[in-house]
Amino acid sequence: MSTFTFHTLESAPEQSKPLLEKSLQAFGMIPGLHAVMAESPVLLKSYQLLHELFQATSFDAEELTVVWQTINVEHECHYCVPAHTGIAHMMKVDPALTDALRNGAPMPTTKLQALQDTTLAMLRKRGRLSEEEITTFYEAGYAQQQLLEITLGMAQKVMSNYVNHFADTPLDKPFVQFSWTKNS
Known about the structure:
Blueprint: H1 17-27, H2 32-37, H3 41-55, H4 61-74, H5 80-90, H6 95-103, H7 110-124, H8 131-139, H9 144-167
Helix pairs in contact: 3-9, 4-5, 4-6, 4-7, 4-9, 7-8, 7-9
């Protein structure tokens, strides 16, 4: 059982209240992750900003989903995999892609496979990609910009995945239907 406080608009530190208002407006609820992060206003603010910035990258909805879910699945995040499954549905991403990401199946295109492979290599090798890995990524149709943008997605996901692990964030009601465990 988590000992972390899951803040409401009433219980949150003053600096977190407008950030939780923003979450409420965006999602129609205060996601559990945001409720935990509210204990540290700077963390919640940083997370929200990284989320907005990553969505403003050159990646389309499918590519955003590939980066997010590849990291979530690799980190075995019980909260983020279902949450991003729901987000992918809201973004009109093909459920077959989401299912493949959740279940470790191949990507539907060579380009998305290169994105997933590169994201995993960056994550597992702490950014130490080989020349061959970078060349393969570029040959799939990506460029330096996208390589750098994967890093932004990783920063966002490390924040959420790690917080969810140590806070044992319960899954929000809208995402329960997308519950996930590794190899499920």
